[in-house]
Amino acid sequence: MHMRHRWAVDAGVGLLFVLAAAFLTHRLWPGPAGRVLALNPSDQALDEWFLAYATRAYRGDFSLVTGMLNAPDGVNLLCNASLIGMGLLLAPVTLAFGAPVTFSLLVAGNLAATGIGWYLLFARTLAMHRAGALIGAAFAAFAPGMVSQSNAHLHMTAAWLVPPIVWCVVRIARQTEVTWRTARTGLLLGALVAVQFFVGEEVLFLTAVTLALFTLVFVAVARPSLRVAPPFVFGLGLAAGLAAALLAYPLWLQFHGPQSVEGGVFLPSFFSADLFSFTAISPLSLAGDDSAARLVSGPAEYTTFFGAPLLLVALGATVWMWRRPAVVAAAVTAVVLCLFALGPFIAMDREPTSQRGPFSLLSGLPVIESALPTRFALAAIPLLAVILARVVDAAITQTETLRLLVPVAVVAALVPLAPAPLPVIDRAPVPRFFTEGYWKVYAPEDGVVVPVPLPDPRDPDAMRWAAATNARIATPQGWFIGPYGKGGAAAVGVYPRPTSQLLQRVAKSGRPAELTAADREALTRDIAYWRAASFVLDPHHPKAGALKQTMDDLLGPGEQVGDVWVWRAP
Predict the structure, then answer these.
(1) Which listed site, 10, 31, 191, 372, has its alpha carbon 20 to 30 Å from 487?
(2) Residue 256 burial by Cβ neighbours in a 10 Å radius (0-12, 13-18, 19+)
(3) Packing angle between helix 517-530 and helix 544-555, nearest 10 degrees?
(4) Which of 242, 241, 24, 213 is nearest to 114 (CA)?
(5) Buried b (16+ CB within 10 A) or exposed e, 149-161
(6) Calpha distance 35→22 (Å, rounded)
(7) What is the C-alpha separation between 305 and 295, in angstroms, rounded?
(8) Residues 263, 481: Cα–Cα separation, whole Å
C-alpha cells in the first residue's frame, strides 16, 4: 500500500471511531449542563466535581489531598477515581465551557482514542491487514464492557495509553541485545506507566496483570531464544525503576497519607460476574433487552456480556490458529481473566453456588483482594480483539477460500453487540447564584457554602454547585471514599453531623422540623466545625417549603439572592 494511501486510510478509520463515539453520546450534546447519564447520575456529579477541581492547578492551588470536598476533613484524591490526569489535561476546556462539557467530551473521547490506539498498534506495529485491525480495534473500544463503563466510569474507559504501553513492551521484546534503543523504550514505558497511574489506576493494574499472564503463556508456548531475555529484563527493569521513582510519593500518599483508606469499600461477592452473563447480550446493545440486567450488579458492569456468537467465533479462530503463540497466549490469558471475573463463588443465573472461583485464591493479598472481580473481564476485551484482528488478517492475506467467509463470520458475531446510544435524562440546572458569581458576596474564596440539604452518597447532586464555580467554594460531606467505616475502614461518604441529619429528615418527610434547644446548639457546633460562611437552598427542591421554614427558624429569615435562598452563618 502506498504511504500516502495508507495515511488516508488510517485517518479515515480514526474519523470513523470519532463519529461512532459521537453517535453513542449524542444525547448529551444538546446541553451537557442540563443532561445526565440516566443510568449513573451520582457518579457523573462526582466526576464533574473532580474535573472542576483540577482547574485549580492552573491557579497554582492543587493538592492530592483537598479540603474542598468533605470540608474540613477533606478527601484523598488517590483513594478515589478522581480523574486527575484527564482533569489536568482538559482543564482549559473546563475553564472555558464548564465541567459538564468536559465530562461529555471524555465519555466520547475515551472510546474514540482507545479505538484509534489499538488500530494503529494492530495495523502498524503488528502489521495486520487494515480490515482486521479495524475490526479488532472497534471491538476493543466499543465492546459491551467499555460501553457500559462509559456510564460515568471514565477512569475505566480511559484506556488510550494501553496501546502505547503494549507497543513499548513489544518493541523491547523484539530486541536481541541491549542497546540505547532498549533503554529509551524502557524509559518511555516507565513514563507511560506513571501517567496512566493518574489517568486510571485500575486500568494500569489490569494491564499489568494481563501483560504478565500473557508473557508467561507466550514464553511457555513459543519458547523464544534466550537472546531476548537480557534486553527484555533490562528494558522492563528500567521502566519499573523509573515508574517506582515517579510514583513513590503518590503511592505512599494513597495508602498511608491523610484520609487514606485500607482495603476496598465494595464487596467482591457483589461485583462478581454471573456465569450466564458471558453468553448474554448487553441491554446497552442494539440486540439486547433489559431482562439480562438481572445478571449484574448495575448497568455500568456489563463487562462479561460477550454473547455466544462471539465466543464461538473466538474459539474457532483460536483452534484454527493454534500454531500462533500470540493467539494461544491471548486466548489462555482471556480465559484466566474471565475466570477471575466470576468472583469468590460462582453464581449461575443469580443463584449463588458453593463452588469457589479462582478469585478466592486472592483473598488476603493486599491491594489485589480489593479489586472488583467483574473488572477483570475488561482486560479480556483487547485479548479477544487480538484474536479477531489476527484471524481476519490471516484469512485475507493467506487463504483465497476464506478471504470473505471469515471476515463475514466475525462481523456477524459482532453485529448483535453493536451499542445503542447511551440513555440520558434531563436534570435541574445549577442555580445562577453559582454560575453567575453571586456566591462571592456570601463566601470568601475557598470558603464553605453549605447546600440545604447537604450532599451525600444517596443524593450528591448539590456537588454540582461547587463544580460550577470550578471548585472555588468548599462543600461539606459529599460522595467520595474515605476512612469513615468501622475502625477507620473504607466507606462511601461520611457519617452526617446533627444539622445534616435534621435537614435530611425534613427533606424526606416534607414537614418543617420542630426545633429544640439541642438542635440550635448542634447547629452552632456544626457551623464552627464546617467553618461555614453561608447556607443555600434551591427553591426548586421538591421539599423547599419545609426546608426554608426550618432554616428560617434556625437562622432567621433568609435572603432571596438571584434564584436561591441564602442564610449567612453567624
Answers:
(1) 372
(2) exposed
(3) 90
(4) 24
(5) bbbbbbbbbbbbb
(6) 15
(7) 10
(8) 11
Full-prediction pTM beyond 0.85?
yes
Residues in the chain: 570
| C-alpha span between 466 and 31 (Å, rounded) | 19
* CA distances (Å), origin 227, targets 169, 233, 240, 344: 16, 11, 21, 40
- Residues in contact with 46: Cβ distance below 8 Å, sequence separation at least 6, in sequence order: 80, 152, 460, 463, 478, 479, 480
Strands (DSSP E) found in 373-496: 424-426, 448-452, 481-482, 491-492
Q: Look up cell 466470576; give the residue.
A: 342
pLDDT digit of tens for each residue in the chain (570 aa)?
566 778 899 999 999 999 999 999 999 999 999 999 999 999 999 999 999 999 999 999 999 999 999 999 999 999 999 999 999 999 999 999 999 999 999 999 999 999 999 999 999 999 999 999 999 999 999 999 999 999 999 999 999 999 999 999 999 999 999 999 999 999 999 999 999 999 999 999 999 999 999 999 999 999 998 889 999 999 999 999 999 999 999 999 999 999 998 877 787 878 899 999 999 999 999 999 899 999 998 899 999 999 999 999 999 999 999 999 999 999 999 999 999 999 999 999 888 898 999 998 887 677 776 789 999 999 999 999 999 999 999 999 887 778 889 999 999 999 999 999 999 999 999 999 999 999 999 999 899 999 999 999 989 999 999 999 999 999 999 999 999 988 888 899 999 999 999 999 999 999 999 999 999 999 999 999 999 999 999 999 999 999 999 999 999 999 999 999 999 998
Please state, in angstroms and rounded to a whole number, the distance separating the CA atoms of residues 157 and 337. Answer: 18
Instruction: Report strand pairing: 448-452 vs 532-537.
Output: parallel
Q: What is the DSSP-derived secondary structure letter of residue 497?
A: P
Annotate 175-215 with DSSP letters as a single string.
-SS--HHHHHHHHHHHHHHHHHHHH-HHHHHHHHHHHHHHH
- Locate 304 and state its grid cell: 462479561
Query: Is residue 380 within 8 Å of residue 207, measured between CB atoms?
Result: no
CA distance 326 to 385: 12
CB 566 within 8 A of CB 558: yes
How many other CB atoms sit within 10 Å of the CB of residue 67?
Answer: 18
**Strand boundaries in 280-393, DSSP class E:** 345-348, 351-356
Rounded CA gap, 202 and 158, in Å?
10
C-alpha–C-alpha distance, residues 541 and 84, integer Å: 32
Could you tell me the three cell numbers for 518? 439541642
Strands 351-356 and 345-348: antiparallel
SS3 category, 445: coil
Task: Tell which residue, 204, 270, 260, has the closest CA to residue 480.
Answer: 260
| Spatial contact of 100 and 505, defined as CB atoms under 8 Å apart | no
Q: Which helix (H) or strand (E) holds 496?
A: none
88 burial level (CB within 10 Å; 0-12, 13-18, 19+): middle
